[in-house]
Amino acid sequence: MPLLTKRDDIEVVLWTEDRVSDRQWLLENVKGAVGIVIVFSELVDAELLDAAGPNLKVVSTMSVGYEHIHVPELAKRNIRLGYTPDVLTDAVADISVMLALMAGRNANETMGIVREGLWPKFIWAPFALCGPQLSTSGVSPSRTVGFLGFGRISHATLARLIPFGVTDCIYSSNPNSSTSHKKERDEKLLGQHQPQLKSLRAVDLDTLGRESDVLFILAPGGPSTQHLVNEDFLRKMKKHSVLVNAGRGTVVDSDALAKALREKWIWGAGIDVVEGEPNVGKDHPLLKEPRCNILPHIGSASFETRLAMATLAVDNCLAESFFVISIAITETDPVFFFIFSP
Ligand code: 8YV
Predict the structure, then answer these.
(1) pLDDT in tens, 132-141
(2) Cα dist. 272→40, 131, 246, 292, 300 in Å?
């Protein structure tokens, strides 16, 4: 097992990339760990916790989402959970705006024309390859932007859209996940945007579907949000609307989305996450839709953000079990750290 560092008080062991799918190896080598830093959204369930044994005090994931971690199993064993909110907010908000622009202005379809060498044969026409404009200007009306899930990343996305001339915003938060702490935070963040918007309304799902020109799905995964965006929802959306999903793939029924694009119930989609990812092979129904702009879950993939996430994940782990030290994390991607007491 490669040893990352050894000090008198701790030993940090790195699980290297070639072991990524080797669950058996993980189960054998995690034995005795005091802390685990999860980098690849590896499943943390009763089996893994039992394999680690009674020394385990903290599981720290390098992600804001933690559906891969069975939290009640941690609670049962008095194991703390660390995650990495905040540091990735800007990177994911950036990519959400990028996806909205790509979907509205037909990036996938039009880049396909160039890539396939069809540009020389392309016959220009005034409205060829046009799409709905996101920004408001003298020539284009204000768009209503909708948010399914209205946490930190949605707020940061909205802030980016205000300079685009967006003045009307509707949102729907998952009622199952609203805690008083979150409500307080949301109200504070909303206060920052309110003066710059003409209208900001909490609406039900039905209204969100019907009224959004651009819908951003930035909700967590898990059973409470599973397929909230289904055939029923998509049928209600405007014909020129754009759907962006940079939250979790499971929120959207992929087959229904493919059908919505094929039958032109909506204009286009920009998605960074897909249910069942990363198993999105060439025959996936969404890949047959030219108006579907798909990225392979790279929302937080900027050097700066990933470094901040990795550092925070390690700090969370060490702060809980021991004390905070800094570990140099390079672009050669450490995968798992097991932290052992000597
Ligand atoms: C990463 C994410 O893909 O933080 C999350 O929940 O979805 C993304 O930032 C994830 O960290 C991969 O482990």
Answers:
(1) 999 988 787 8
(2) 17, 20, 5, 11, 10
Mean residue pLDDT of the chain comes to 86
> 271 forms bridges with which residues in the sheet?
245, 294
pLDDT, mean of residues 200-223: 96
The matching CATH number, chosen from 3.40.640.10, 3.40.50.150, 3.90.1150.10, 3.40.50.720, for 3-85+301-340 is: 3.40.50.720
Atom of ligand 1 nearest to the CA of 41: 13
Whether 41 is in the pocket of ligand 1, judged by its Cβ within 6 Å, is yes
Domain 89-120+129-294 belongs in CATH node 3.40.50.720: yes
Residue with tokens 């409500």: 183
Whether 155 sits among the annotated catalytic residues: the reply is no
Query: Nearest 5°: CA angle at 203, between 199 and 207?
Result: 100
The residue that leads in pLDDT, 158 or 34, is 158
Is 231 designated active site? no
Radius of gyration for the chain, computed over Cα atoms and rounded to the nearest angstrom: 22
Q: Which of 75-79, 105-109, 242-246, 257-261 has the lowest mean pLDDT?
A: 75-79
